[in-house]
Design brief:
The protein has nine helices and no strands. By secondary structure, it is mainly α. It has three domains: 30 residues; 33 residues, no CATH class; 110 residues, Cytochrome c-like domain (Cytochrome Bc1 Complex, Chain D, domain 2, Orthogonal Bundle). The longest helix is centred in the first third of the chain and has 28 residues.
């Protein structure tokens, strides 16, 4: 009797351990991309066709999703090379615009939402992820602080170009970056990106004070 109970108990514990382990492994792997894809499409099911197109991942996002953003180095190199080819640099070779306009763009979180009128000018919404000016008291921390950004980089021309590249297409610098691809996805135009780069690098910008 006791032996039977002991065996039954051991079997129950083993079964529970197997299910727990399987659940842990599933959680570690993350949700099935196909399920996430179906959920996204159902969420935007009633959206206009142009919105439907926005949720269709391109080759880079498909790769990042498949590896849960932890891509092997070979895949990361492919992503960076592919995205770098998509970056369009200013024809005039100038990367710096007006830092005062850049400050406005960086602090504008409007644009690209259902509630926005079609003619709404999109902002960069940079404060959602970064601290910019030292005096700021409310900002996101998903990205690094941008205070003294230009000063710390000694206003180096190569650093300025690199920053333009990252704002235009973050994946061209870091594979599977969380930062939006502002230029590639036409969230910001060339002049807006130039103005944001000026906000980062102009010595008179409050970022560098």
């Amino acid at each position: 009797m006791n032996r039977s109970l002991t065996l039954a108990t051991l079997a129950l514990v083993a079964s529970s351990w197997t299910m727990t382990t399987a659940s842990a492994q599933t959680a570690a792997k993350g949700p099935d991309p196909a399920i996430v894809d179906r959920y996204m499409k159902s969420t935007f099911g009633k959206a206009p066709p142009e919105w439907q197109a926005r949720i269709e991942p391109d080759e880079t996002l498909k790769t990042c999703n498949a590896y849960h953003n932890d891509v092997p180095s070979a895949e990361a190199d492919k992503i960076v090379a592919r995205e770098l080819a998509r970056v369009v640099y200013p024809v005039d070779g100038k990367f710096l615009g007006n830092w005062k306009e850049g400050a406005k763009i960086a602090n504008n979180g409007r644009g690209g939402q259902f509630s926005d009128p079609p003619d709404t000018v999109s902002g960069g919404n940079c404060y959602a992820c970064h601290q910019m000016e030292q005096k700021e008291v409310s900002y996101g921390t998903l990205g690094p602080s941008l205070t003294n950004y230009g000063k710390d980089r000694k206003y180096d021309p190569e650093e300025i170009k690199n920053a333009y590249t990252k704002v235009y297409d973050s994946q061209a610098v870091f594979a599977c970056s969380n930062m939006p691809r502002f230029g590639v996805n036409k969230v910001l135009n060339e002049q807006q990106i130039k103005d944001i780069i000026a906000f980062l690098f102009d010595p008179e910008s409050p970022i560098n004070k």
